[in-house]
Amino acid sequence: MQHRHPCKTFFTAIAIGxxxxxxxxxxxxxxxxxxxxxxxxxxxxDLSKNMQSVTDGIxxxxxxxxxxxxxxxxxxxxxxxxxxxxxxxxxxxxxxKFEGYDKKTRQAARALEQAALRxxxxxxxxxxxxxxxxxxxxxxxxxxPFVEHFYDQH
Length: 154
Description:
The protein is built from six helices and no strands. The chain is mostly helical.
């Protein structure tokens, strides 16, 4: 009896999963008229609410509030696996760029949290500006084509 190397088994499972997700994604895309909004939409709405709450906290110098909300931004939810695969397939060769923006967003939110925990208002403000810039850069790169691809198909 021949034993397979655990890494080969893992990569084979990933390849099969990717193939199945690809087939599922195509079938889903063919039926886009009946589709529900992506989970990513709710995630982005939650992020927007949290960003607004941080703005409110900053304006009132409520560093405790900012410190409690920043981790919600840093540790924001991820879409379900099938949806995530569709998004990554859509990103194509820009997947590294897309993931890089997400990583920078998480890092900026962590820096915001740390500054808020120290009640360091100046660093809170500069960290929040950095966080806003990472969001803006990602949105400018991906939002319009994403919406057109997933929502404006006819």
